[in-house]
Amino acid sequence: MxxxxxxxxxxxxxxxxxxxxxxxxxxxxxxxGILPEHANLVxxxxxxxxxxxKDGEETDMAVSGGYMEVQPHSVIILADAAERADEIDIDRxxxxxxRAEEAAKNVGDLDAQLAAEAALKRSLTRLKVAKKRSNRPRxxxxxxx
Length: 145
Ligand code: ATP
Fold this sequence. Notes:
By secondary structure, this protein is an alpha+beta fold. It folds into two domains: 4-85, F0F1 ATP synthase delta/epsilon subunit, N-terminal (ATP Synthase, domain 1, Sandwich); 89-135, Single alpha-helices involved in coiled-coils or other helix-helix interfaces (Up-down Bundle). It contains two helices and eight strands. The longest helix has 26 residues, at 110-135.
């Protein structure tokens, strides 16, 4: 079966580098599904959930905007920030959400309001990805021998 080499990088570090089956990315105009042999494409990413399928198993990541370059067998995502579910600090995201909601009430300053809306979207995306993780059914505990 054909695969895709996926690399996710930020300005600071390499976040993810694996050979995967498919990707669903938050494109600026909606979700973009990428399978092997996809046509060449460069696009802007929105803040949202990135879903990676590898060996039939799905992993979600929170992505905070950036660019995606697609070639038939490779995808590079240059993200402003990206976190896997298990890397997300839920308390921090809740605090960021509360701050952003408060800042969004400052209706007089358009720039501040846009910044607050972007921060709100980042925090809600992180909470969505982190909560999906905690809702996932766990394996039953092993009996102690
Ligand atoms: P905050 O106000 O909490 O810093 P933010 O949305 O302004 O949130 P970003 O500027 O998007 O944060 O990210 C800065 C760095 O912090 C990035 O490396 C990002 O991965 C990380 N980060 C932000 N929020 C969280 C979180 N809730 N859990 C884990 N890492 C986070």
